[in-house]
Amino acid sequence: MKCRICESETTLLFRETVLNKYKVGYYECPTCDFVQTETPYWLDEAYSQAFTSTDTGTLQRSLILGKSTIALAFFAFDRHARFIDYAGGYGTLTRYMRDVGFDFYSTDLYATNFMARGFDAKPGNYELATAFECFEHFVYPGKELEKILAYSDSIFFTTQPCPKPAPAIKNWWYYAPHHGQHIALYRPKTLAYLGGQYGLHYYNLLNYHLFSKRKLSPFVFKFLVIAGRLGLSNVVSLFLKSRTLSDADLLQKQPPLPVHVS
Fold first, then answer.
1. What is the C-alpha end-to-end distance of the chain, expressed in Å?
2. C-alpha dihedral sign at 245, 107, 93, 206
3. Among 35-44, 59-68, 205-214, 222-231, which is the least confidently predicted range?
4. What are the φ/ψ torsions at residue 27 (nearest 5 degrees)?
5. What is the pLDDT of residues 183-198, one digit of tens each?
C-alpha cells in the first residue's frame, strides 16, 4: 500500500472494523509519518448524512475555533479583506465571524449553508481560508489541498495529530471507526511534508495548524491562537463593526433566497 501523500511504501498497523461491518487496514508511512486507511470504498455509506449523530460538538467547535480565528485574522492578516470557511457545514462559523465584523463566506459540497444564507463563497481570491476538522476526511490530501489553495494561499485548520507510536484503535477516539469518515491521520512531520510540496510554511500548536505562503513568527501564531481563546477575541470585536444588521439590510434588497426543504 503506497502513501497517499509521498507515495512511499507503507506498513500495516492493524485491521479493525469500520461502520460495524467492514474489516479495514490502517497503514503508516515511514517517510512522512502519515497514517491512512486502505483505499476507502465505504464513503458513500459513511456520508449518507453530512454530519454524524455523534458529532455533538459542531456548534461549540465553531464558537471556540472562531475565537482563535478572530485574533489571527485581525493581527496576522488583512482584517478588511474577504475570508472563506472551506467545508463550512451549515455556515455556523461564517455567521459568527460576520456577526463579529469580518467579511466571511462559506462553501461546502456536502452540507447546506443554513446559518449564513446569502454568503456562499464564489470562486476568487480570499485573504485566509479556515478548514476546521476536514483534513482527516481527505482521501488524497494533496488534491484536496489544491482545491483550498485555489481560494487562498493561507489556510488555518484543525485536525488531531496522531500520537506516535500509533495507539490501538480502542485507545484513541479520533480514529472514529463507527462513522468511517476519518481516513487520514497526520502528525506535524506529515503536515510539514505536505505543505512543503506546495511551497507553504507550516505552523503548529497542538491540533491547530496554519499553512501559508507568508512567513510568520511561530511564536506569534501560537500566541494569537491561545490569546484568542482566552479573551483577546472579545477585545478585538470592540474595534470591528458587526455585519448582523447590515447583512439583513443587504439581503432584503436582493431576490428572496430559495427555501431549503430537508
1. 40
2. negative
3. 59-68
4. -125, 150
5. 999 999 999 999 999 9
Answer for the pair 26, 37: CB distance below 8 angstroms, yes or no. Answer: yes
Asked if 97 and 63 touch (Cβ cutoff 8 Å), the reply is: no
Q: What is the pTM of this model?
A: 0.93
Among candidate residues 109, 217, 199, the one with its CA nearest the CA of residue 153: 199
Handedness of CA 218, 223, 226, 231 (dihedral sign): negative
- The domain locations on the chain are 11-252
Residue 235 CB contacts under 8 Å (≥ 6 apart), including other chains: none
Q: Tens digits of per-residue pLDDT, 64-95?
A: 999 999 999 999 999 999 999 999 999 999 99
Q: Does domain 11-252 have CATH number 3.30.60?
A: no
